[in-house]
Amino acid sequence: MSSKIRLGIIGGGGDSLIGVLHRIASFMNDNYQIVGAVFNPVWEENIGFAKQIGINTSRIYPDFDTFIEKETALPTSERIQVVSVLTPNFLHFPMAKKLIENGFHVICEKPMTTTYEEAEILQKTLAKTNTVFAVTYTYTGYPMVRQMREMIKNNEIGEIQKVDIQYYQGWINPIIHDKKLRNTVWRLDPKKGGISCCVGDIGTHAFNMAEYLTGLEIKSILADLNYLYEDNTLDIDGTILVRFSENVKGVLRTSQIATGEENGLQVKIYGTKGGLKWEQENPNYLQVLSEDKPLQIYKPGHSYNSELSLNGTKLPPGHPEGIFDSMANIYLGVAKAIRNEPYNSGEFPVMNDGVRGMKFIEQCVASHKNGNSWVQL
């Protein structure tokens, strides 16, 4: 029997970006083997896709309930151990809850649920088990993001004073101005996407990055969201002021109508002794700023980096590492947890990160609706 962790996948079939990202990430460190799945609710597409990518069809199931029923009937030594939930948002909660209740470890796409209430229920369900639960805030896996976290943790830039995170995309711009077209996109459908589009989709990445890197919790927020059209009920752009404490403040800027932008996640964090700057579209370069030294550029794979950063670096210096590597580092951390091996708390986001993400989404919407007022997290 293979020593690899037996992985199941729900969703992510066809031309899904998330699907291929997770599948490749699971293979990259030789820790997982995909043994079962429900890639698509349409059986012909489900089984056809499994054959296309070379997955044994004996454990390709017609639906999620059958997946649970058949897998739990197998001996522990054969059944799937961990399941990646890659479905649209509204299915995350019921699927994750049932998986936890049936003893599966879970790797869940974000946002973890569609409401904070669901997130709390999920957290209480998890507390009754020994299940490993990861939420895939993918960008936490980049080596230079992990380097930032460790430098801040070790007080290399001093006490945090200012956090500025921007996440700009433009993909909704050609869709939002066509009423018929925008009604076909599930992320703009509150029944499938939840109460938020932009903040729920990419704003949560900015929020998570702020807390992951600084080690601080955001205490209150003020949100100004943009919907463009009265009949569009989900935000597609927003600016959120954040307060970690009385003197530690910041701004999260997020948009899916930033025309021409692709995946513009940019992080700037300033402390009393220095600053750090990083861009997702140029991820191998971490800028380190100070008042009394020239600008420094840190790159992955060098001995001057932290153990956490080097642990997430697969290639020698000068070989670019990107989004697949970042997601693979999260899968690597989960594998360590499943096997009860030592791991750094920064190796993968946990359920509490998902819970806070849901609280952030709901309070952003509440802040905007309440006249752009400050609300507590």
TrEMBL record:
<protein>
    <submittedName>
        <fullName>Putative dehydrogenase</fullName>
    </submittedName>
</protein>
<dbReference type="Pfam" id="PF01408">
    <property type="entry name" value="GFO_IDH_MocA"/>
</dbReference>
<dbReference type="InterPro" id="IPR036291">
    <property type="entry name" value="NAD(P)-bd_dom_sf"/>
</dbReference>
<feature type="domain" description="GFO/IDH/MocA-like oxidoreductase">
    <location>
        <begin position="145"/>
        <end position="276"/>
    </location>
</feature>
<dbReference type="GO" id="GO:0000166">
    <property type="term" value="F:nucleotide binding"/>
</dbReference>
<feature type="domain" description="Gfo/Idh/MocA-like oxidoreductase N-terminal">
    <location>
        <begin position="5"/>
        <end position="137"/>
    </location>
</feature>
<dbReference type="InterPro" id="IPR000683">
    <property type="entry name" value="Gfo/Idh/MocA-like_OxRdtase_N"/>
</dbReference>
<dbReference type="InterPro" id="IPR055170">
    <property type="entry name" value="GFO_IDH_MocA-like_dom"/>
</dbReference>
<dbReference type="Pfam" id="PF22725">
    <property type="entry name" value="GFO_IDH_MocA_C3"/>
</dbReference>
<dbReference type="InterPro" id="IPR051317">
    <property type="entry name" value="Gfo/Idh/MocA_oxidoreduct"/>
</dbReference>
